[in-house]
Amino acid sequence: MFDFLNFHIAQQWSEFNFITAMLVFVVYIFIDALYSGYTLSVAGHKPYAAATMGSLIYFFTALGVISYTQNYLYIIPIAAGSWVGTFAVVYNARKHSIKKNITEK
Predict the structure, then answer these.
(1) What DSSP character marks residue 89?
(2) How many domains are contained in the chain?
């Protein structure tokens, strides 16, 4: 069993393309930024923005699914891109919220 698993992992690494991985990483940064914007749009009752972002999320997510169904190692840049995208949006929202609170006082 372990021989088969080692062969399978070695085969996945041999088919792994770092350019594709970077593209998937960047796309998932964008997707997570869209998710954050989508949530803010829904909470702010902005139907056009929320609907547009929702459709873009599904479109770009499909690209990721196609990538990792061909090679499960692409899940690594997907997870990393997701983390970076969420962090960037929340960090910037917090930064703007703090600036807004300072200027209102």
Answers:
(1) H
(2) 1
pLDDT of res. 69: 72
- Treating both helix axes as pointing N-terminal to C-terminal, what angle do 18-43 and 75-104 enclose, rounded to 10 degrees? 40
**pLDDT per position as a tens digit, 57-71:** 888 888 777 766 777
- Looking at the predicted structure, is the pLDDT value of residue 9 above 80? no
Instruction: For residue 12, tell me if it sits in a domain.
Output: no
What average pLDDT score do residues 14-28 get? 86
Task: Confirm whether 3 is domain-assigned.
Answer: no
- Amino acid in the structure at residue 83: W
Per the structure, the complete domain to which residue 23 belongs is given by: 18-104
CA gap 77, 20 in Å, rounded: 9
Alpha carbon of 83 to those of 25, 61, 69, 96: distances in Å?
10, 15, 21, 20
